[in-house]
Automatic annotation (TrEMBL):
<dbReference type="InterPro" id="IPR024078">
    <property type="entry name" value="LmbE-like_dom_sf"/>
</dbReference>
<keyword id="KW-0862">Zinc</keyword>
<dbReference type="InterPro" id="IPR003737">
    <property type="entry name" value="GlcNAc_PI_deacetylase-related"/>
</dbReference>
<dbReference type="GO" id="GO:0016787">
    <property type="term" value="F:hydrolase activity"/>
</dbReference>
<protein>
    <submittedName>
        <fullName>PIG-L deacetylase family protein</fullName>
        <ecNumber>3.5.1.-</ecNumber>
    </submittedName>
</protein>
<dbReference type="Pfam" id="PF02585">
    <property type="entry name" value="PIG-L"/>
</dbReference>
<keyword id="KW-0378">Hydrolase</keyword>
């Protein structure tokens, strides 16, 4: 008989992989939580599926945007203790659910061998539709398919093992951000300065927002209240799916 799945997240894991569509996605939704993990000794890797070349709010030439946004994401990662940042280079704004994308994410899962994967919810969040960019939902669904069954199945994408020596790997937990069924909150009040520092690194994306800090902390305070945290606390929320 198969034992029941856990009902709560593991208190500590050795490795986490965050798979997001664009540079800055991880920082808006997850950087505070990442800061708590790195402070506790967890190794965190970022896998950014696009270079964010369709983003920005100024007259920066399009051909310069990929390099700028990669540099911004690397600086933001450093602000919360992450040094391993990988870019897959898929086209921004044009992601589709393809076998190639599933294979590319499966490759990184097998390389990093994380116990926990963080990604975007594949479900639309109607209360905050800006969080449900089509690329976000595509990456969320692609990552879930990479977690199960692709990365754990030695017969899926056999070239990963035959040509690259990447053995199958089973992920135990997936944390979905911007989910309509969030069931777990992380209190990040004590690391909010690190999250905001990471967000400020994304100059091409946030320089037009004079009230960035108030905007971000406002919805984080609302999240905290929704999960019953005391007044004055700030939180990030996830739907935790046990996958092993």
């Amino acid at each position: 008989m198969t034992p029941p799945l856990p009902r709560t997240p593991a208190p500590h894991v050795e490795r986490v992989l965050c798979v997001l569509a664009h540079p800055d996605d991880v920082d808006f939704g997850t950087a505070g939580t990442v800061a708590t993990w790195t402070a506790a000794g967890t190794e965190v890797t970022y896998c950014v599926v696009t270079d964010g070349d369709a983003g920005g709010f100024d007259e920066t030439p399009r051909e310069q945007m990929p390099a700028l946004r990669r540099a911004e994401q690397q600086a933001a990662a450093a602000a919360v203790g992450v040094s391993d940042v990988r870019f897959l280079g898929h086209p921004d704004g044009r992601l589709e659910l393809t076998l190639d994308l599933r294979r590319d994410i499966s490759r990184v899962i097998r390389q990093v061998r994380p116990q926990r994967v963080v990604t975007s919810s594949p479900e639309r969040l109607w209360d905050r539709i800006g969080a449900s960019h089509p690329d976000h939902m595509t990456v969320g669904e692609s990552t879930l398919r990479a977690v199960y069954p692709d990365a754990r199945n030695p017969f899926a994408f056999p070239e990963l093992l035959a040509d690259e020596g990447l053995a199958a790997w089973t992920v135990s937990e997936v944390w979905l951000g911007a989910s309509p069924r969030a069931d777990h909150a992380v209190d990040v009040t004590d690391v909010i300065d690190r999250k905001l520092a990471a967000l400020r690194c994304h100059v091409t994306q946030v320089s037009h927002l004079p009230d960035l800090d108030r905007f971000v902390t406002g919805w984080m305070a609302e999240t905290a209240r929704g999960f019953g945290l005391p007044d004055g606390r700030l939180a990030e929320a996830f739907h935790v799916v046990h996958t092993a």
